[in-house]
Design brief:
mainly alpha; 2 domains; two-stranded antiparallel sheet; 14 helices; binds protoporphyrin IX containing FE
């Protein structure tokens, strides 16, 4: 059901994206803006529906298994499964944080070369207005996700934190190399009681370790733990830069006047996308060996169709090709846009006018 609903949202997005992109000079400005708003809304809704389908794989509800047969199907209960809200919120914020910081990063880089360019100044402000609040809210949403996993997917949480033994006052592990064979972690820093608190709201709460699960039902602990560290590490960096932006905005500092700030934002350009990949590794590798948690194993879901390697290679090549096309299009739109040049000539914020006037004097 969420997948079919996603289809409606996707087509709405695609149609109005066409209207938006090709309608600049062809439809009235109000209608053009409306098309843009619809693209934003339907894009977000389409992402939310896809993530809800994934959340159902993590905490399946809305059916009963009787003698291996699926009965009592309730599509609405499947949509509103216990992981839907947390995952949809986390992914939506992730998308805004990653995109906002990527756009801000590109404009910050260009401002380092051309600090007086008013187009890049405006664009930096708008992009940070999207990216910074999302990056600041993301750790809170991640905390909601972690609490949800503690309840519904304890093996995933144990793998994320490389918790081999069930414990009260379970520590939060920073860094470290887990070794599932010896059930130990080397080089990690432990914050006593931290995991108990984050998962259950009390430093003394018991957190289930991997010892509660048969060895063949453990996910790949080093991969899940590393991916979790990358996601949280990059998320913390982005949140710090977002705080810096808020501080500057509150103090009414010109963002583009600080080279250090611009360098920090430029360094953030790819971080959100790397964190998103890491987050999906946590979710997907962390659920293994299940494809539908507790119901169906991935090994049982593999299609017996021969020749899959060819389609896999074909799609990989297609996406690499599309990636190159998109990069080239973005390059020509952002770096060489005539619209940008025109704006640069006609609009300068007062502070820049003043700086230019001073320089001329
Ligand atoms: C800063 C602290 C963060 C915490 C505590 C956190 C926590 C989590 C947790 C517990 C999951 C697993 C959810 C599940 O499998 O059900 C997850 C997944 C995910 N995370 Fe994070 N995360 C953080 C930051 C970020 C950032 C900065 C991004 C990207 C910009 C991100 C992107 C994702 C994505 C895409 C997923 C998979 C889809 C989803 O669950 O929505 N996370 N995160």
């Amino acid at each position: 059901m969420p997948f079919s609903l996603e289809g409606f949202a996707f087509f709405t997005e695609a149609i109005f994206l066409g209207v938006y992109l090709y309608g600049w000079d062809r439809i009235p400005p109000g209608a053009h803006l409306f098309a843009g708003i619809l693209v934003a809304i339907s894009g977000a809704v389409s992402g939310i529906f896809v993530v809800i389908a994934n959340a159902w794989m993590n905490s399946p509800t809305g059916f009963e298994l009787v003698n291996g047969q699926i009965t009592n199907i309730d599509p609405v209960a499947a949509i509103f499964n216990p992981a839907s809200f947390q995952q949809a919120l986390h992914m939506t914020l992730a998308a805004y944080a990653a995109t906002g910081f990527a756009v801000a990063g590109i404009h910050a880089l260009l401002l380092l070369r051309d600090p007086l360019n008013s187009f890049h100044r405006k664009a930096l402000g708008i992009a940070l207005l999207v990216g910074a609040p999302a990056a600041l809210l993301q750790p809170l949403s991640g905390d909601l996700s972690a609490k949800n996993i503690a309840e519904y997917q304890p093996a995933k949480l144990a793998a994320m934190e490389a918790l081999f033994e069930t414990q009260t006052r379970a520590p939060l592990l920073l860094g470290g190399l887990p070794d599932p064979e010896s059930r130990t972690v080397r080089y990690g820093i432990e914050i006593p009681g931290g995991l108990s608190f984050l998962a259950h709201g009390s430093f003394d709460a018991e957190v289930k370790g991997l010892d509660q699960f048969p060895r063949e039902e453990w996910p790949n602990v080093p991969v899940v733990h590393l991916a979790f560290q990358v996601m949280v590490g990059l998320g913390s960096l982005m949140a710090l830069v977002a705080l810096w932006a808020v501080f500057k905005a509150v103090r009414r500092h010109e963002l583009a006047m600080s080279r250090r700030f611009l360098m920090a934002v430029a360094a953030c350009t790819p971080l959100g996308f790397i964190a998103i990949e890491a987050g999906w590794i946590v979710t997907e590798v962390g659920r293994q060996p299940w494809i539908i948690h507790g119901v169906m194993k991935t090994a049982d879901a593999v299609t017996p169709m021969p020749g899959l390697a060819y389609t896999f290679a074909g799609f990989t090549a297609l996406y690499i090709f599309l990636g190159v096309v998109v990069s080239w299009l973005l390059y020509s739109q952002i770096i060489r846009s005539p619209r940008q040049q025109a704006w640069h000539r006609t609009y300068l914020p007062p502070v820049v006018e003043a700086t230019l006037a001073r320089e001329q004097r």
